Amino acid sequence: MDFELSEEHKIFQRTAAQFAQKEIAPLGEEYDEKEEYPRWIFPRSGELGFLGIPYPEQYGGTGPDTIALSLFAEETTKADAGIAMGLVVQNTVGTSPIYNFGSEELKQRYLVPAIRGEAIGAFALTEPNVGSDVSAVEMSAREEGESYILNGAKTFVSSGMMADYAIVAARTEKGKGHEGITIFLVEPQSSGFTRKGLKKLGIRAQDIAEFTFEDCHVPKENVLGEVGKGFYHLMSTVQKTRIVVGASSVGLARAAFETALRYAKERRQFGQPIGKFQGIQFKLADMATEIELASLAVYKAAWRNDKGEQCIKEASMAKLYASEMVNRVAYQALQIHGGYGYMREYPLERYYRDARIMEIFEGTSEIQRLIISRQLGL
Ligand SMILES: Cc1cc2nc3c(=O)[nH]c(=O)nc-3n(C[C@H](O)[C@H](O)[C@H](O)COP(=O)(O)OP(=O)(O)OC[C@H]3O[C@@H](n4cnc5c(N)ncnc54)[C@H](O)[C@@H]3O)c2cc1C
Fold first, then answer.
1. Most-buried pick from 29, 68, 108, 176 (CB within 10 A)?
2. Could you say which residues of the chain have pLDDT below 50?
3. Domain 7-119, what architecture?
4. pLDDT tens, 354-363?
């Protein structure tokens, strides 16, 4: 494959990079420290067309375009992973079930304002007892008249505290495994709905919440897709999200690498810049090589996704390799900074903390290896 970004994609990448470096990067340290999200970044991103990259113009979008979405994730995560993650969720799982499975009315009511950045979406699948095995959803949804009554708990919901709506998976039929799961759109004002914020290691600007549902009434018109087919609906969109997490990993790795490269040229020990030592040069050479390989895997998977081709294996490989790569790169970038890397006055400790999540959400590294193994016929 002869791969090069198109002229349009190169222009888009430059525009996204300018926005990210000018408007996101200066906020990173402060909002990580405050563990707070700069909410106005949503309407600002919406105004610039950055929240509708996977969606057509009829809803206010600019896509669909997985390569552009990957470039956006890469450039914003390079600027700050915590802030970027809010925008990435909004461009993927926070809206895609509405676009893919929602009625026209739900699209107008939730998707259109989400693309403008006026409504923030969250996606709640994980439960206290349900993580990697998503078919084990325990939360129940009981039909009653014109509503469903939801009972149960969700956890680790990205953007969960600030969300204006949440996309929630619940079980409409007991004992059916993959069958019997349905997707609902829930508003936080609904009776019986409460939420609580959680604290985490990295991507601290982005909020994360635990949801509790106690006889929470959701109108039937808020069902997304077919009743009982929620598992299959959700699984049909994961490949795109995995590619995007791969892209975010590449962006964060680039930030760590570029900081380390600069430092290696400036910091002097034993009478010369540390970048003159082969031990440091080889670290940087390996980091640059790995970033290049990961980015190619991400772009190739995105390119195939845009052609409408199945790319389950390529998406998992890109996510697996890029997410493990960013952890190696962040580790070495901090090492190159010595003691200064460990201090909060440099961004290395933040990159190091932020990198860790890439191997966990959207399917852990172990789950990606399982998927790849299955694709190999094992
Ligand atoms: C910051 C953050 C944001 C998140 N955002 C969201 C969100 O917005 N919405 C949402 O629904 N969820 C979200 N999640 C949840 C995330 O997707 C899950 O944490 C992840 O899928 C793993 O589930 P778990 O934590 O329950 O781990 P478990 O599934 O309990 O896994 C524990 C360990 O066992 C391993 N393991 C499990 N099964 C196997 C197997 N078959 N073979 C080998 N190893 C296995 C795992 O890889 C892991 O190492 C988020 C999580 C975090 C930390």
1. 68
2. none
3. Orthogonal Bundle (1.10)
4. 999 999 999 9
DSSP, residue by residue, 1-29: ------HHHHHHHHHHHHHIIIIIGGGHH
Q: Give, in order, the Cα–Cα distances in Å from 99 to each of 49, 92, 116, 309, 315.
A: 17, 10, 14, 20, 21
Angle at the Cα of 288 from the Cα atoms of 282 and 291, rounded to 5 degrees: 140
Task: Please give the class, per CATH, of domain 237-375.
Answer: mainly alpha
Residue 4 is predicted with a pLDDT of 84
Residue 166 CA, ligand 1 centroid: distance in Å: 19
- Using CA atoms of 134, 137, 143, 149 in order, give the dihedral in degrees to the nearest 10: -120
> Ligand 1 pocket, 92 CB below 6 A?
no
The reply to whether ligand 1 has any atom less than 6 angstroms from the CB of 188 is no
Structure tokens that stand for 93 in this block: 């799982």
Residue with tokens 């930030």: 255
Q: Is the pTM value of this prediction over 0.85? A: yes
> From ligand 1's centre to the CA of 366, what distance in Å?
10
Dihedral angle of Cα 157, 159, 163, 165, to the nearest 10 degrees: -50
Atom of ligand 1 nearest to the CA of 203: 1
pLDDT at position 349 is: 97
Residue corresponding to tokens 């609904």: 190
Nearest CA to ligand 1 atom 11: 125
Q: Give residue limits of the domains in the chain.
A: 7-119, 122-229, 237-375
Find out whether 251 and 74 touch, Cβ atoms under 8 Å: yes
Query: CATH homologous superfamily for 122-229?
Result: Butyryl-CoA Dehydrogenase, subunit A, domain 2 (2.40.110.10)
Q: Is 378 helix (H, G, I), strand (E, B) or coil?
A: coil
Q: Tell me, what's the pLDDT at 1?
A: 52
* Residue bearing the CA closest to ligand 1, atom 41: 367
Distance 200 CA to ligand 1 centre (A): 14
For ligand 1, say whether the CB of 137 is within 6 Å of any of its atoms.
Answer: no
